[in-house]
Design a protein that fits this description.
single chain, alpha/beta, Rossmann fold, 4 domains, 7-stranded mixed beta sheet, 19 helices, 15 strands
């Protein structure tokens, strides 16, 4: 066996020994890639019959939401680990998915005969494979990407990975010679303790190293193994990646979360500094400067065929939002004591507090909060906002709305798409999203490598208590709210499934109010998480 083959086998064995939990990532969803591309003047194939390829798919957890939501589309996942592919195939079969094809094979074996794909996704692979596989990733994105297709590649980058490089070297050194993966991990964690608590006060890297080591403490074991203890982890500078992509016949578009490329996202000081330094620089050079300013360690780049480079806008076009549908999981907060009369505050899914004194902004956020997880068309927002600006011309009102939408994007609070999500208004007979019933049974099994998801391609943690799981199995679109309430009451009265508050209602009577309160709470939780279709 040649040296490259031995290295490839070692990578496969590592993922078989310590498999990743295969999670969905919303910014990799084809619907998101398509919407982001449109901000830069690029069209991309519609989703309903799209062909999607994921390189390094693990157990297919990032493809499964797309396959379930678009039964006429085709999703193909490739991974080197047979164990992870088999785990994903079991889940797909149990969920009744017929348009998800998971294959255990090397990326280097993919040829033009493999077919063309509208979207190619490569998340968490590029930096962790040998040079010949990185070349293969670029080659696949060139030869197997449809003419108007979008490719996505994520990778570790400098300067943010410089401190992580030092920590990785130290962890690898201390775990050298370990005979089992468990021993290797334990030794690596010992090194983290030294970096957190044993550094000399005069060590010039002390702050950066401690900060990075502290963050690693909250990570899972499989993350530490595959991110820091793999044989290969090769960060690069963004300009190096962009140049390699160009050499492969591809053109860089933007980040999958384009707000991360806006200097204004990071505050006035960064924006002014970058404007002064890069006034005559091209877009890629401006983004490299920004990486230095913010210490970026990870990128998620969108690529297209180089023939489309001239069509890529230098700056995103905000007016593209006027043709989109929007969604946001926002919570209106109670008015603070002594707050100005017009001040309103909302909490985003990531815990940020959004504050506004503008009635137009309040209209937008109230509509999005009330509709979540459903989408709201831009035109509906425009019509509602006219009430608060009766004398304003539509052109000026549209501009004002767009400024608030962009602010929501920069706050990482907004989902936007060209197609509406399949969520519907609440119905008298609620139902879960496609495949949820089957997936709930699978993810509850020990060792399942796939997580629950919603239609926004986000990972979801379903309720774990016995009563909730019992009622979830009956939310099938055939039972009315009254029937579901009766099911809760009967479960409590019989004592089969205790109330999650710990109180026993076995043999109790007149439990309708208790059952109704529980059911309302459960449906609210399911709707908030995006598991409830209507």
């Amino acid at each position: 066996m040649s040296a490259p083959d031995r290295l490839t086998q070692a990578i496969s064995d590592a993922y078989d020994e310590t498999p990743y939990i295969s999670l969905p990532f919303s910014y990799t969803a084809p619907g998101s890639l398509r919407a982001v591309a449109s901000l830069y003047g690029l069209t991309a194939p519609a989703l309903d019959r799209a062909r999607v390829l994921e390189l390094g798919c693990a157990a297919g957890g990032n493809l499964l939401p797309f396959a379930l939501a678009h039964p006429e589309a085709q999703a193909v996942g490739i991974d080197l680990s047979p164990q992870q592919i088999e785990a994903g195939q079991r889940v797909a079969e149990a969920a009744g998915v017929r348009n998800l094809d998971l294959r255990a094979m090397s990326l280097t074996d993919i040829t033009p005969d493999f077919g063309t794909f509208d979207y190619i996704i490569c998340h968490g692979v590029f930096s962790w494979v040998p040079p010949e596989v990185r070349h293969a990733i670029f080659r696949i994105c060139r030869t197997n990407l449809a003419p108007e297709g979008i490719a996505y590649i994520s990778y570790n980058i400098y300067p943010g990975w410089k401190a992580s490089d030092v920590i990785r070297d130290a962890m690898m050194l201390n775990s050298f010679g370990a005979e089992t993966p468990q021993e290797k991990l334990a030794r690596a964690k010992d090194m983290l303790e030294l970096i957190e608590d044993g550094l000399w006060d005069e060590n010039p890297l002390q702050s950066a190293l401690r900060h990075t080591a502290h963050k690693l403490r909250s990570q899972t074991d499989h993350y530490l193994v595959h991110e820091y203890l793999e044989a290969i982890n090769t960060p690069c500078y963004f300009l190096e990646f962009a140049a390699a992509a160009q050499q492969a016949g591809l053109a860089y578009v933007t980040d999958a979360e384009p707000q991360l490329t806006f200097p204004s996202t990071y505050g006035t000081k960064v924006a002014l500094g970058l404007n002064k330094l890069s006034v005559n620089a091209g877009r890629e050079m401006r983004e490299q400067y920004l990486d230095f300013a913010v210490g970026r360690s990870f990128r998620k780049s969108l690529l297209v065929h180089s023939e489309r480079a001239a069509s890529i806008l230098d700056q995103p076009e905000g007016s593209a939002f006027t043709g989109m549908v929007l969604a946001a999981d926002l919570q209106a907060l109670p008015a603070a004591t002594g707050a100005p009369a017009l001040q309103r505050q909302y909490r985003s899914p990531r815990g940020a507090t959004l504050t506004s004194h503008d009635p137009i902004a309040h209209t937008i956020m109230d509509m999005l909060a009330e509709a979540w997880p459903r989408t709201v068309p831009f035109q509906a927002i425009l019509e509602a906002a006219r009430v608060h600006a009766p004398g304003m011309q539509d052109e000026d009102l549209t501009s004002a709305i767009l400024s608030h939408i962009i602010a929501l994007v920069q706050s990482n609070a907004l989902q936007y798409r060209l197609e509406p999500a399949a969520y519907q208004a609440p119905q008298s007979k609620p139902a879960l999203i496609a495949g949820a019933q089957e997936l709930l049974r699978e993810v509850s099994k020990a060792g399942c490598q796939v997580s629950m998801h919603n239609l926004w391609n986000q990972g979801v943690t379903p309720p774990a208590d016995a009563l909730s799981r019992h009622i979830l199995s009956q939310i099938d679109g055939a039972r009315s709210l009254t029937e579901l309430r009766s099911a809760v009451r009967d479960a409590l009265t019989s004592g089969r499934h205790p109330h999650p508050n710990g109180q026993s209602y076995k043999g109790a009577r007149n439990l309708e109010p208790v059952a109704q309160e529980f059911l309302n709470s459960l449906l609210t939780e399911l709707r908030r998480s995006g598991l409830l279709l209507n």
